[in-house]
Design goal:
Length: 351
């Protein structure tokens, strides 16, 4: 049978140009399954900023990896799952695939990582308030990143100040809402007045528009006004000048979570101040966030139960920007970097 794939056609540093980076190909898929293999049909795929780094480490001509929801079309006698099961995993930008669903070592990057084995999605875990597509968003990897940071590391306390860069993204807005539920003062950054208003509508106390406040001194002043008592917790997805300013205002025993660095990964900004003195005196802790370490059955169950309950009670909201059709995947991906003012949270493609 035939499968459509978006493959990596060119490696381009800096702001992605999806028209050049990706090429659509149609390949013949061998459906003579081994006993442990499954034929999978892709139903939804995720597009995320971090895929830029994955792309740069993907060999030319290989399909683009990405999180997806898949249906088992056929299964070998010893396969992990059976026909009709719905799965979530790193199936990638391809319409059909053959896989055994086991974890895969990703060896081409600077730091080798493991893509977890595919997990079965139980339709009964999802509701009208949070449908199965949330397994790629607030109840999937982004949600686990936010919830894991909050419960395994931050432990936000009543009265603390939490600052979130890139707060209108799929992860940042969850961190913000969970922090607000914990009784914190929540400050976020956004790139437009519309996004700032959206964040305030879901509970953020203050939002700094980084496209209006972009000079170092202005950033320092805006942060001081928004967080006059210092910053207790900082969740960072952007980096750059804003993060430099945050380090100068960290409170005693503060914690910093580094989720991603847009400034270096996309904008290729590698300069900045020496930050060790800002860590030393407040005795701050900095931790890199690698959410895959939290991908366990117990944690998935807890995430769905806890965050799902917040959604049902109207305490947390989320938003999906849904694109339609396999051919729209590059456009959906490009929307993360150009004209992103239209995006609110998670960007998905329904095949």
């Amino acid at each position: 049978m035939k499968t459509e794939q978006w493959v990596v056609n060119e490696h381009i540093e800096g702001v992605p140009n999806a028209d050049k980076i990706y090429k659509k190909v149609i390949k013949t898929l061998d459906t003579n399954l081994r006993p442990s293999e499954m034929l999978l049909k892709t139903l939804y795929v995720s597009v995320d900023p971090y895929l830029h780094g994955i792309c740069l480490d993907t060999p030319i001509g290989q399909h683009m990896g990405a999180d997806s929801i898949m249906e088992v079309v056929e299964a070998g006698p010893k396969a992990m799952y059976k026909k009709g099961d719905l799965l979530q995993g790193f199936g990638g930008w391809q319409s059909y695939l053959v896989s055994d669903g086991e974890e895969k070592l990703w060896q081409t990057g600077t730091f080798p990582m493991v893509f977890p084995k595919y997990r079965k999605l139980n339709p009964s875990d999802y509701t009208d308030e949070y449908p199965i597509t949330t397994s790629l968003g607030i109840l999937g990897g982004p949600g686990m990143t936010a919830w894991g940071t909050m419960t395994k590391y931050f432990n936000v306390a009543l009265g603390e100040t939490v600052v979130i860069s890139g707060a209108s993204g799929a992860i940042g807005q969850i961190v913000g809402q969970l922090s607000k539920l914990a009784g914190a003062r929540v400050v976020g950054t956004a790139g437009s007045a519309e996004k700032a208003e959206y964040l305030k509508s879901i509970g953020f106390d203050e939002v700094i528009n980084y496209k209006e406040v972009c000079e170092p001194e202005a950033i320092q002043a805006a942060l001081k006004a928004a967080a006059p008592d210092g910053i207790d917790k900082y969740f960072d997805s952007i980096g750059g000048d804003f993060t430099d300013a945050v380090f100068a205002q960290l409170a005693l025993h503060s914690k910093v979570a580094i989720c991603w660095q847009w400034a270096t990964q996309v904008n290729q900004e590698y300069g900045g101040p020496r930050i060790l003195p800002y860590i030393m005196f407040p005795r701050a802790t900095i931790r890199g966030i690698y959410a895959l370490e939290w991908f366990t059955e117990d944690n998935w169950s807890a995430l769905i139960k806890e965050v799902g309950s917040h959604i049902k009670r109207g305490e947390i909201t989320y938003h999906h920007d849904m694109h339609e059709g396999f051919d729209s995947i590059p456009t959906a991906y490009q929307s993360l970097f150009n004209n992103s003012d239209k995006n609110r949270g998670k960007v998905l493609v329904k095949l």
